[in-house]
Amino acid sequence: MKRGHVYTFLFMVVITAVLVFALAAAYEGFKPSIQRNKQLQEQRAVLSALGLDEGLKDNQIAAVYEEKIKPGKLNGFEEAYGMPILAHIENGETLAYAVPIEGSGLWGALRGYLGVNADRTQTTGLVFTYQNETPGLGGRIDEDWFKNQFRGLPITPNTLMAYGSVEDKDIDAITGATQTSSAVMRTINKSLTEIVFSEEVK
Amino acid sequence: MANEKTSAIIKRNLFTENQVLRAILGICSSLAVTNTMRNSLVMGLGVAFVTGLSSLTLSAMRNIIPHRVRMLVQTLVIAAYVIFVDLFLQAFLPDISKHLGPYVGLIITNCIIMGRAEAYAQQNPPLPAALDGLFAGLGYTLVLLGVAFIREVLGFGTIFGMNINFIGFETWTIMIMPPAAFFIIGAMIWVMSARAANKAAKAK
What we know:
By secondary structure, chain A is an alpha+beta fold. Chain A has helices at about 5-50, 60-70, 145-150, 180-195, and strands at about 70, 80, 85, 85-90, 95-105, 110-115, 125-130, 165, 170. Chain A has a domain at about 70-195. In chain A, strand 2 (about 80) and strand 3 (about 85) form a beta hairpin. In chain A, helix 1 (about 5-50) crosses helix 2 (about 60-70). Chain A is globular. Chain B has helices at about 5-15, 25-30, 35-60, 70-90, 95-110, 110-120, 125-155, 175, 180-204; strands spanning about 160, 160-165. In chain B, a hairpin with a 2-residue loop joins strand 1 (about 160) and strand 2. Chains A and B meet through helix 1 of A and helix 4 and helix 5 of B.
């Protein structure tokens, strides 16, 4: 059967409409779970940056988060890169801050949290909530061995963090992922100079 | 070809006409994701799922798709399934979704899917087409896992993330890097081509 332009045109319109409708329906259907998962991931990331997520099951995250995490003010900043700075508060005392970080990795943006203790002398942790790095190479910045290197590192104003020995610890870059590793350091140092130790009070 | 037996479809897609090793399709992702077995497995299953379903759908519609715009339709259907897979993973398997973030989009660009749609689903009924797509994807998975096994064992000293490096050998950094996949896939293609050439020579 020979078909004309009109058939072809109508066919494309109909099939596009059908597929768009089906995907929109699927998205609406999945939306509650997707949002719940996103919130859980975000809350776990904040707790992890503060070193509070160890051994927590998924269903305990929300309760712990509610109890210990409040909006915070660090060095005069209430937010960093458009995200609120969060404080770890227990018994009315602020113990640490989760500072949003943002930078560019090898392939795309890097976003996450850097945890620093209340008197700004040590990091409490590092976690990425968004990254597009090469899986198996730069993507390993999500692995525990890498992130755990950034717990309890000394920080001081006007000193940039770098790979190598820091006091008695070694911070290792990822083999084969030099660009991503440097990007992580750049991102941390940007946050340290622009937010944590920037004395410009807003 | 119209009434190909199921076992023939399976054997053809997994071995004799493996899409990666014989048709040299899907090479990009085979090079990129094969440094760990876990990533390879999930990527492979994602591709198998999408190839199977898109072949099924396109075959069911094969008589009403205008020939001139069939590639547009193929792309639309494939993209719709990939987006669906992405949403599904985000909703029900958030951990895997997080690890695969950048890959899921890569499924769309996998030439095997469109290759099967063009080469097979267009001329065959839905059920064989779905099987053909599914097993083409599984054949791809098989090659990925084979390559990833060699790379992960030598590069990280692990299998599926489990440490097997009992004798403590020095891991080979090059195995984690993309060039390693070139050598391994190249060697595999060589073996498969030599085998096919051998067979053809005997048949004469």
